[in-house]
């Protein structure tokens, strides 16, 4: 259940449990059990030993009993649980071991970045904030996806379009993968911005309106996806596969510049025809 803000204590507890339970004891060279394990993954005693903390400490963390682990303990837990880099950053965010950002979330594109988005033509490009709100776009991106000017500002959100906007829902050839990657990225942003009530409200809306989002959100995957590909069934141009790169401006680190290029000659020809109309 998503409320007004992130309950970091509860989320930290749930995240630690899920990451402990997904580990295979055989990967750690642990001796086989004399009796079957009642739960999957490592036991709390095993994680405690690997992290160099007491079993009681792990129990209290997983029961959300108000502990705030130090940076050293968070690092030890990340190593013990073999967290990926994005998961490690997520754990540090939940433990409040990163300095909170002073700037408010951007709701409009800074003029220099808006000009850059336009100058990137003929490559499709758009500027997003950490919520996936679309702040600026060029002509090519509008032709590839849709004319964002026709939408109210509240609907200019990549995740909202993928989940709720019927034409966009049907556009992605591999929709579940796109959705899974987007949710994993959104979860990292949610932990990094616990004060952002608008983001929490957006996630609550998605959970209430889309069963698939609720199912994937509950898996607690965390991954900041800065590079990849998407295949789209465009209603005018047919199948187009693009490779994308996401860049973060140093001056505006909570914004993301997404740049796309055709992944093959057929997709390039389709993009050329589409943007020439």
TrEMBL record:
CDD domains: HTH_XRE. SMART domains: HTH_XRE (SM00530). It holds the Pfam family HTH_31. InterPro entries: Cro/C1-type_HTH (IPR001387), Lambda_DNA-bd_dom_sf (IPR010982), MLTR_LBD (IPR041413). One of its GO terms (molecular function) is DNA binding. PROSITE patterns: HTH_CROC1. Residues 34-88 form the HTH cro/C1-type domain. This is Transcriptional regulator with XRE-family HTH domain. It comes from Thermocatellispora tengchongensis.
